[in-house]
Predict the structure.
Amino acid sequence: MWQTAHEHVLKLVAYEPGKPVEELAREMGLEPSDIIKLASNENPIGPSPKAVEAMRAALERAHFYPDGGAWALRGAIADKLELERSNVILGNGSNEIIEFIGHAFLRPGDEVVTAKHAFAVYSLMAQLFGAKTIEVEDPGYKHDLQAMLKAVTPRTRQLFVANPNNPTGTLVSQEEIDEFMAEVPDHVLVIFDEAYHEFLDEAPDVLKYVRAGRNVVVMRTFSKIQGLANLRIGYGLAPAKVAEVLQKTRQPFNANGIAQAGAMAGLADEEHMRKTRELTHEGREYLEGIFREMNLEYVPSHANFVLVKVGNGDTVFQSLLQRGVIVRAMRSYKLPEWIRVSVGTMDQNRRFVDELRALNLAATAAR
């Protein structure tokens, strides 16, 4: 039976997530409490206490199906962003929104335009639907929107702009976005991935294009600043006609009730988001300062992680694993000399730096 599967699916290379703490503990014989994970851009202080309380209360109704239309949460998101409920669609993580878009708009032979060093799932989803990914060079590891426009052909159906970008942390400005949107052809759907939007002090406004009815989808998530990655809940924002089409591709009850309750409470907890943002800014500045001190090239980041050049990324990744520190090797992103490190608590950041310095000293001593 497997021989009858679509050829483009058989060739698909599955997404490789950050290594779980439990897996490393088993492999290395370490205590989970001795391991720090700075690999998946998670919130190091955890979810909002208000979200935890709401989820515990929701457990009492675990025997009921959730609200399949997520009336309350979609309404709360819409109210906060000055949109309508009809503009909001929920996903099992924002990744599922990408899948909805593929189901709705991609056919075999279509083209999807991305930056060269952009989130891997964009090209994976394109391949899943038999589409071709066109990767555009990104000088300075930043989206070149004008070059991406030049890559558009009559077969182009989707164009992804991650802002800030993962894994580079770079940001395109409002001016660049506005100039780009003024030239995007009508047959192209632009997807703005804003998973790290809440970490910005001054964020570009792309929701105005939703309100104007343009061919755009804006993706955001509760996994990052909200600290709800385990729940897998994200959302898309689109003009009502586009959102209506995406709703047709959604599985019933794709956003579970406990996740909806946690997201609803977390959305309203501005204090928790403020604390996370401040911790992130402090930790990011610390890490970037250390990298400068160590003469390591890095990409200045606008998100909750930093991309840093360490020589052989795979070797450093494995060496850090042996010391109980999980980061992310970047070979799969065509950056074999780099690692990406998430911003943790200050204690976790210092632990990472100590272990990285020890590797550097060991390498120097071996020469």
Observations:
- The first helix runs from residue 7 to 10.
- The chain has a mean pLDDT of 93.
- The longest strand covers residues 156-162.
- The chain has 14 helices and 13 strands.
